[in-house]
Specification:
Elements: H1 9-16, E1 21-25, E2 35-42, E3 44-50, E4 56-64, E5 66-71, E6 77-81, E7 85-89, E8 95-100, E9 107-115, H2 117-128, E10 141-142, H3 144-158, H4 163-181, H5 197-209, H6 216-223, H7 227-238, H8 242-260, H9 265-271, H10 277-286, H11 292-296
Antiparallel strand pairs: 1-2, 2-9, 3-8, 4-7, 4-9, 5-6, 5-8, 7-10
Helix pairs in contact: 2-4, 3-4, 5-6, 6-7
């Protein structure tokens, strides 16, 4: 493997500067293709200084939550993290931050993932034919698949999986991040092209505000097209109708809250954009996820499909 595709020693230094309780790490496996660590951090009023690393840093929430107050940017930013929340830090960027509690929760279990910039660039080139013009989300997004995969990789490291496994995992992670979070389209019959920027604007709105009472008009307004044209265009680009994409986002967070918190079903429904608990229960059932009580007990399925028009259309 070329040196450019190796994790920088500065990533381990940056990780070591975080006050944390380590639960698992790929460092013991001696991998050079990526660095992954699962740990617990606690809310604290002191400002923490993290040194820069050339690798891309990905923070993946597992349990609990935190509000991350970031300094050194204008304006000052505050981002809320919870289960399956994913945030990104550009390579070469140091951080000054403070960890604040969320709804009284002071501990946050998370995974820190470090990928070489060259691995990300190769994935972007494979998907788009270009390494230019990348735009990562400005705040945390939901990605339960990435959270689950990070734990699979850590278990493989604990079993002593080889460097070849680490290289394959690093390339899968890079492709997943590029395709899922850069809004890029894989090369194929349609050739090399960026996702329609109008739809990208609507996706950004949904990803950041899906817990709000969004309507089809709101989404179309963000895309600056009529709502009739928007629904067709969104489905063509994303492969699913906008209402289905919206409710899947809501249900992904709902499943995480039911699994990882003690919030009541009514509170979970309200925090994930459902105006009525009955509508929330119906959406879970339509998705094949089961009742909230079954999900909390570990017997429910993660939602895969849903006819979610009730979530964006006025209720009787």
């Amino acid at each position: 493997m070329a040196d450019a595709s190796r994790v920088s020693p500065l990533s381990a230094l940056s990780l070591a500067s975080i006050p944390r309780t380590v639960k698992a790490s790929s460092a013991a496996a001696g991998w050079s293709a990526l660095l992954v660590e699962r740990h617990v951090v606690h809310a604290h009023r002191d400002v923490l200084e993290l040194p820069p690393t050339p690798d891309r840093t990905v923070v993946i929430g597992l349990r609990g939550g935190q509000r991350l107050e970031l300094f050194g940017s204008a304006p000052r930013q505050v981002h809320a993290y919870g289960a399956a929340s994913v945030g990104f830090t550009d390579g070469g960027q140091g951080l000054s931050l403070r960890r604040l509690p969320v709804d009284g929760v002071r501990s946050f279990e998370k995974v820190n993932l470090y990928l070489p910039a060259a691995t990300i660039a190769e994935a972007q080139d494979a998907v788009t034919g270009s390494r230019q013009g990348a735009r990562w989300p400005g705040g945390p997004v939901q990605d339960p698949d990435l959270a689950a995969m990070s734990l699979v990789i850590l278990r493989a490291a604990a079993r002593g999986a080889s460097e070849l496994y680490a290289q394959a995992a690093a390339h899968w992670l890079a492709l997943h991040l590029v395709e899922r979070h850069l809004g890029l389209e894989r090369t194929g019959d349609r050739g090399h092209r960026r996702r329609d920027q109008r739809i990208a604007a609507a996706v950004d709105l949904i990803d950041s505000s899906f817990a709000l009472p969004l309507t089809l008009d709101d989404m179309a307004r963000a895309a600056r097209v009529s709502k009739f044209h928007f629904a067709r265009l969104f489905t063509e680009v994303m492969g699913v109708p906008p209402h289905r994409y919206l409710v899947r986002k809501r249900l992904e967070l709902a499943v995480a809250l039911l699994t990882d918190t003690d919030l009541s079903v009514a509170d979970v429904a309200r925090r994930t954009g459902f105006s009525r608990t009955a509508s929330f229960r119906h959406a879970l059932a339509d998705a094949g996820a089961g009742a909230p009580e079954a999900i909390r007990a570990g017997r429910g399925a993660r939602p895969l499909d849903v006819d979610a028009r009730r979530a964006i259309e006025p209720e009787d």
